[in-house]
Amino acid sequence: MTVDIEKEDIEGLRFPKDELHLGAEERAALRLQLDMASTLGNLEKHKVRVVFEDSEGKKSVHTTIWGVTEKNVLLKGGRSIPVHRIHTISFT
Predict the structure, then answer these.
(1) Rounded to whole angstroms, how far apart are CA atoms 41 and 91?
(2) Is the dihedral of CA 81, 82, 83, 85 positive or negative?
(3) What span, in angstroms and rounded, lies between the C-alpha atoms of 14 and 32?
(4) Residue 91 forms beta bridges with which residues?
(5) Does the pLDDT at position 16 exceed 80?
(6) Mind listing the domains of the chain with CATH numbers?
(7) Start-end of H helices in the chain
């Protein structure tokens, strides 16, 4: 079960250091989706649904991705989600 949260609530979450169990192909596809989401976010302010997992379980947030580094997905207001804790990106 996935809990929907607001992007403002991400600040209070704790993220484990261990990676989610995704295969190499899934991880490569996720990286492409993150890059596309970042481009759409910057050019068109397009929002996506990010499903991720913190220390308490699966959560999702509907937000604009402003940037992607090797380790983090950057959101508005200095918030971020570790890439290694993301399950999927959905373009809505």
Answers:
(1) 11
(2) negative
(3) 25
(4) 48
(5) yes
(6) 3-91 (2.30.30.100)
(7) 24-44
Other CB atoms within 10 A of residue 91 CB? 11
Percent of the chain with pLDDT over 70: 100
- List the Cα angle 11/14/17 in 5-degree steps: 130
Distance CA 36, CA 34 (A): 5
Lookup result for tokens 């079960």: 1
pLDDT digits (tens, 9 = 90+) for 40-51: 999 999 999 999
Q: Does the predicted model carry a pTM greater than 0.90?
A: yes
Over the range 11-49, which residues count as b (16 or more CB within 10 Å of their CB) and which as e? eebebeeeebeeeeeeeeebeebbebbbebbeeeeebbb
